[in-house]
Specification:
The protein is of the alpha/beta class and about 725 residues long. It folds into five domains: about 1-40, no CATH class; about 50-255, 3-Layer(aba) Sandwich (Rossmann fold), CATH 3.40.50.300; about 260-270 and about 395-535, Rossmann fold (3-Layer(aba) Sandwich), CATH 3.40.50; about 275-390; about 595-705, Metal Binding Protein, Guanine Nucleotide Exchange Factor, Chain A (Beta Complex), CATH 2.170.150.30. About 40% of the residues lie in helices and about 20% in strands. The protein is built from 20 helices and 28 strands. The strands form seven sheets. Strands 8-9-7-10-11-6-12 form a seven-stranded parallel sheet, with helices on both faces. Helix 9 runs antiparallel to helix 11 and helix 12 (about 350-360) packs antiparallel against helix 13. The termini are far apart. Mean pLDDT is about 85; it is low at about 1-10, about 15-35 and about 365-370.
Length: about 725
């Protein structure tokens, strides 16, 4: 039943009450005694569309499935419709607990606001890594908990929460469930319980929603590979009712989708053969390469990813070697990395942006005073190069010139335009924002630029969630009308609809392509991709388009299985998921065969001995364990500085200082205070070499350590 009262529309089945009016009985709506407590509430003029009801139908029947619909077509309203119906049908039961699981904290706030708006009768609570509230407690006092995947996995892993306590889970942006994400970890636990548990308790209903399920790793566009990828996604989600797309009401969907006009602009890049800036940097790089005996660079562009890989491999090999001059050689390779980064920036941006990178990158490598001669040599070379580069006449970048033309014409022709320009790095976002702000031509077009990037431990190059929200609000009210953005803006942030979306020398996956283009959902929207002709990015972009079409073809032609056939395949895949998980765990246990007191931890940079493996202790529980060194002798090996961003790591651990190798200044980790007032250094395994006898090895994660690490005790 649809009921209009004042400026709102209520969707549900309120009770009719018999009243006497002038002696005659009549039926009126009595919302106060309606058993349909969880009506969907919409503003006047809004309605649940037919295609949204089509997408919600399996969920209303209590089925497990995934529904797919383009960005901006109201997937959150579909989820709210299912949640409201679930709460209403089960409101007399004790174990009705609904979770809406999201990938980011920012999206958690956005979805909480949406659910409170759509279902005013439901109480909704947020649970993320930043909140003290646990999911299990939130579920006791609220109808719905909106939580991040990381928070959910943490509580499930520690067994603070059980699947049997949950009646409905909806995963937003569920396409990440097949990767090594928090979603994947949660769903592996669910699948394992689904297979091994013989409990007669009602099963948790699981629903996934996404705009782009993806085609999987499929460079040859093989239909079977994509089918297998989609089946694996369904297996992780236990989507026994399959993947649902709009079939019956496609015309209505297309009317509301507002698909943008797409265009790929292929441009000739800078002419490196005649560009004096490039030639100056290349000549300097060739001189430094002479210090690396046997270094070969035939056929490799010195601003390419292949060159970067080669240099990083050199550094890795040197860190593991016993070469007495390894510090000099590492320094030479680090200098080449800085020059390579400079050229990469120059190919995409301005010369002044590239010079800033050269100054910053070249000064970032700390080295022991014993190598001062080598350091002085490269510092002299660097200063000389910077002086020569700053004296050169700037050359226009054809890619930036084209970007300027597109922006100018769009904003001149439509003063109300809102645009997003996606770039690869935070530095590019900042540089582009500064360039647009300095452009008189773009100022005349009424462009007010801003930037939005993700959060990292480096304050200078990142934005907090509060800063992101402030920028988005400025974008919403018009103080900013053009955002330079990294991939953080592709999904998970509540960014207003744009009529211009551009990718500038940045191509990601088919999923991210769909997500980014979904931002262009205003009337008369346009999406442009600006890339160098004949570049690898061009071919990746073409491949992404074909992969998107391949997924559409699979659903349109009914290639994806359903019914008993799908259920059987999901069962086989789930058995494989659990088998692979257990094999990996068994392999991890078999690795832990070395004696920890025989393993030395060496500073990766200067090779000084820091401690032994037997000195390391694990603090806290997985998946958020911290690894501390308990011996007081370790304090003699490092120096400390106040942390630029002190913060709570766990409920009982607070980081206060950074710790550095006393000899070479390498970043070893942080110093922390426990709630018990004890203080311990927490170290990063990636900053150390592990030596056992004559063999050396590295660790990317402490969980891969080939020795046992005992828990941190009060006696330590």
């Amino acid at each position: 039943m649809i009921l209009k009262i004042n400026s709102y529309v209520f969707i549900g089945e309120p009770h009719l009450k018999q009243m006497k009016n002038n002696g005659e009985e009549s039926s009126i709506i009595d919302l106060s005694i309606s058993t349909n407590k969880f009506c969907i509430q919409l503003k006047a003029g809004q309605e649940i569309r037919k295609y949204q009801e089509e997408l919600a139908a399996p969920g209303l029947r209590g089925e497990n499935y995934i529904f797919v619909a383009p960005t901006g077509t109201g997937k959150t309203l579909v989820a709210a419709r299912i949640i409201a119906d679930h709460l209403d049908r089960n409101q007399n039961l004790d174990n009705v607990v609904v979770l809406l699981v999201v990938p980011t904290k920012a999206l958690a706030e956005q979805q909480k606001d949406a659910l409170e708006r759509y279902i005013p009768g439901a109480s909704v609570e947020i649970c993320t890594g930043e909140t003290q509230q646990t999911i299990s407690l939130a579920c006791l006092t609220n109808h719905v908990a909106v939580c991040t995947g990381g928070k959910l996995y943490s509580e499930l892993f520690r067994k603070d929460l059980k699947f049997s306590q949950l009646s409905l889970m909806i995963f937003d942006e569920c396409h990440s469930a097949v990767r090594g994400s928090d979603y994947a970890n949660v769903l592996k636990l669910y699948v394992e319980e689904e297979i091994t548990c013989s409990s007669s308790n009602p099963k948790t209903q699981i629903i996934g929603m996404t705009a782009s399920p993806g085609a999987g790793k499929n460079p040859r566009m093989n239909l079977q590979i994509t089918l297998d990828h989609l089946k694996m996604l369904a297996a992780h989600m236990n989507a026994t009712s399959g993947i649902k797309t709009v079939v019956e009401h496609t015309e209505e969907l297309e009317r509301h989708r507002k698909a943008p006009k797409l265009d790929r602009l292929l441009l000739e890049p800078r002419d490196v053969s005649s560009d004096p800036f490039v030639q100056e940097v290349l000549e300097t790089m060739k001189e430094i390469e002479k210090d690396l005996k046997g270094f070969q660079c035939v056929g490799i562009k010195r601003w390419s990813h292949k060159y970067l890989q080669k240099i990083r491999q050199n550094i890795h090999a040197l860190e593991l070697s016993d070469n007495e001059s390894f510090l000099d050689l590492i320094r030479a390779n680090k200098e080449l990395l800085a020059y390579c980064s400079t050229l990469c920036v120059y190919m995409n941006l301005r010369s002044e942006d590239a010079i800033k990178v050269l100054k910053k990158e070249s000064d970032s490598f700390k080295i022991d005073v014993t190598c001062s001669e080598s350091r002085q040599k490269y510092a002299t070379i660097r200063r000389s190069l910077i002086e020569r580069l700053e004296s050169l006449e700037p050359h226009d970048n054809p890619l930036m010139s084209k970007l300027q033309d597109v922006l100018y014409h769009k904003f001149v022709n439509d003063k109300n335009s809102k645009g997003l320009v996606f770039v690869r790095t935070r530095y590019e976002a900042k540089a582009m924002s500064d360039w647009i702000a300095d452009s008189k031509r773009l100022a005349m077009a009424g462009i007010h630029p801003g930037m939005i990037v993700g959060h990292t431990t480096n304050k200078k190059d990142s934005m907090t969630q509060a800063e992101q929200k402030e920028v988005i609000e400025q974008f919403r009210n018009g103080d900013i009308n053009l955002l330079m953005a990294t991939s953080v803006a592709e999904e998970g942030l509540d960014i207003p609809a744009c009529n211009l979306v551009m990718r500038y020398q940045y191509i990601a996956s088919d999923i991210k392509k769909e997500q980014a283009e979904g931002r262009a959902r205003a009337v008369n929207s346009e999406c442009y991709t600006i890339i160098s002709a004949h570049s690898p990015q061009k071919y990746q972009d073409i491949l992404n388009e074909e992969l998107i079409r391949l997924v559409q073809t699979i659903f349109k032609n009914g290639y994806f299985p359903n019914g008993d056939s799908l259920a059987g395949e999901i069962k086989k895949l789930q058995n494989k998921i659990i088998d692979d998980k257990r094999k990996k765990e068994a392999k991890q246990k078999q690795k832990k065969v070395l004696a920890s007191d025989q393993i030395q931890l060496l500073c990766k940079l200067c090779k000084v001995q820091a401690c032994f493996g037997s000195d390391v202790r694990v603090a806290g529980e997985q998946p958020y364990s911290q690894f501390a060194v308990s011996t007081p002798e370790f304090a003699e090996k490092y120096s400390i500085k106040p942390h630029h961003a002190p913060a709570q790591l766990t409920d009982s651990i607070y980081k206060t200082h950074k710790i550095y190798c006393k000899k070479c200044g390498a970043d070893w980790g942080v110093k922390c205070v426990w709630s018990s007032d004890n203080q311990y250094p927490i170290i990063k395994c990636v900053q150390f070499l592990f030596k056992f006898g004559e063999n050396k090895f590295e660790l990317k994660k402490w969980s891969n350590a080939p020795f046992d690490i005992p828990p941190l005790e009060d006696s330590d």
